[in-house]
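User: Sequence in, structure out. Go.
Assistant: Echoing your sequence, followed by the structure tokens.
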Amino acid sequence: MAVTAHSSEHPRPDGPDRAIETVFRIESPRLIAGVARIVRDVGIAEELAQDAMVAALEQWPRAGVPDNPGAWLMTTAKRRAIDLVRRRERYARKLEEMGRDLETAAPPHIAGPDGPDGFDGPADPDDIDDDLLRLVFTACHPVLSAEARIALTLRLLGGLTTAEIARAMLVPEATVAQRIVRAKRTLAAKGVPFEVPYGADREARLGSVLEVIYLIFNEGYAATAGDDWLRPSLCEDGLRLARVLAGLMPGEGEVHGLAALLELQASRTAARTGPRGEPVLLADQNRRHWNQPLIRRGFAALARARAVSTGGPGPYELQAAVAACHANALSYEDTDWPQIVALYELLAARTPSPVIELNRAVAVSMASGPAQALRLVDALADEPALKDYHLLPSVRGDLLLRLGRLAEARGEFERAAGLTRNGREREILLGRAGECG
């Protein structure tokens, strides 16, 4: 479950409790990853990270927020982790001294002080020194279902609440909560090591890892809830992980495809919000504010994906190609919309999804007009996965507006505003409803 500051009270908006909650939300993935390297159990690591937050709640209101709150939380969490490991080792030694045949029940041995925290063993030569990436691969172990892998990694690495994960995965919140609890228990029961695997094991987990990194970036790129449209720290984590993974697996086309997609998406960040933090839609963005170095990195990653891909382009490579079409265009109207329609048709053939069909309808509206696109959108009205998806009525409202059906468009924008949980997005949708008169 998500940790909140003094859940039974009402902290002042600008008080220390709010500062602690904000810092913890940002730092919790790194805390969990750093502590998991010591205790080798992601469930216990999350508990110790939460213990560090409780310590902050007790001390920061009296002593003030430290200059480096993230480092304070990490130090506190790691000290508790080291104490736990030492207690385990003392317990194991006592069992051995007493001559009890309980070796199978004893916790795994933790190597001596070879690492900076005193509890790291020799590094695997094929491993990489990135705790967050270890956390992703651990949470994406094949002993878990695909749905559980995604939910657990979004919780641990993305720092998302169960409600946010449920929104991102289009499933009930109770389902997500059950998946997370069962996943942590399974990892502990199976003794899954905290590591980046190699060889066939790495290949088996790659699909889930790519999906998780994409969802983490996407949550930062367009937050599902809250008062902020963007969560830059999640975008940075997702982009950094994609780059690290591309360096780790240079022969995998989809790894480069994901990196290309995130580079090109991240290039628009500065243009996606206005002076008050309000969302700016793609059609209205000032393209002079798009980050050209990131665009060049995206094009280079897309070229690498195409060079090493076998069996045709994968889903991430195709989405990156769509993003490249936008990056190549001088304006929204000048975009090669027929090419984007063709790319979405390929994508729908590779990975059928009502969300992909909705995106294809948007491209069709620009290539062939809103009337044809409206027929495609109306065909999605009964899709269960889109029942509470706010972008369905949002897109439909835009098409109705362009067709001059203002009253219907207003109703769709209002319905979309009622479905979204992001305050900034709600404002823009209500604004569009108001434009309908």
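User: And one key feature?
Assistant: The CA atoms of residues 207 and 254 lie 9 Å apart.
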